[in-house]
Amino acid sequence: MPEQPAGRRERKKAATRQKIADTALRLFLEHGYDAVGIRDVAAEADVAVTTVFAHFASKEALVFERDADFEQRLARAVTDRAPGEPLVPALRREIHALVSHCLADDAAPVWRMIDTSPALREYEGAMRLRHAEALATALAAEPGPPRTGTARRAIARFVVDAFALAREADDPQAAVDEIFRMIEAAWETAGTHARVPLSG
């Protein structure tokens, strides 16, 4: 059966997006983030500037091109886990995987670039807040004792921040486990408090 036109278009869009992101990252690492503009990226990738902006809302977004994937993976760790699988271990496993990915040898220069750029650090901070809000929304559908919106958002921020804290630790995987022991205790406490009314 011949491939549908819509399928070909989506594959072509995805390939163009990846080409732009790969080109931008190479230029940033070769010349420095601040020295490269969107026009430089477009010219090197052989696309129009408007094409770059059709795929990426800003220059910073070119560095964090897996932003949406990261957010979806966290939400799916909650919503798509096996029936009966506890919540916190599922999230811990996902953070372990993401930390391992970001510690790969080829990722080190990228993180050094991010850490030395105020614009990229600011973008990363805003990105983490967006991810936490998406995760808090996924947590709202969790069965069991209801947690308040504040509790869900706090737990979600702890989970997302675990990624950043572990990346900076001497033993990143041990740091993830340590942080998640606190997250598990906080999640259980939030559920207990939801069941016990405050005394007058």
Question: How would you describe what is shown here?
Answer:
The chain has 200 residues and is mainly α. The chain is 75% helix and 0% strand. The chain has helices at residues 5-31, 38-45, 49-55, 59-63, 67-79, 87-102, 108-115, 118-139, 149-168, 172-195. Helix 8 packs across helix 9. The radius of gyration is 20 Å and the shape is globular. The model is unreliable at 196-200 (pLDDT under 50).
> What is the radius of gyration computed over CA atoms, rounded to a whole number of angstroms?
20 Å
Structural class estimated from helices and strands:
mainly alpha
Estimated helix fraction: over 70%
Average the pLDDT over all residues and give the rounded result: 89
Q: Main sheet, how many strands, which sense, barrel?
A: none
Strand content: under 5%
Helix run count: 10
Note the gap between the termini: 70 Å
Oligomer: single chain
Count of DSSP E strands?
Answer: 0
List low-confidence stretches. 196-200
The gross shape turns out to be globular
Q: Which descriptors would you attach to this protein?
A:
0% strand; 200 residues; mainly alpha; single chain; 10 helices; globular
What is shown here, in short?
This protein is mostly helical and 200 residues long. 75% of the residues lie in helices and 0% in strands.
List the helices and strands and how they pair.
Elements: H1 5-31, H2 38-45, H3 49-55, H4 59-63, H5 67-79, H6 87-102, H7 108-115, H8 118-139, H9 149-168, H10 172-195
Helix pairs in contact: 1-2, 5-6, 5-8, 6-9, 6-10, 8-9, 9-10
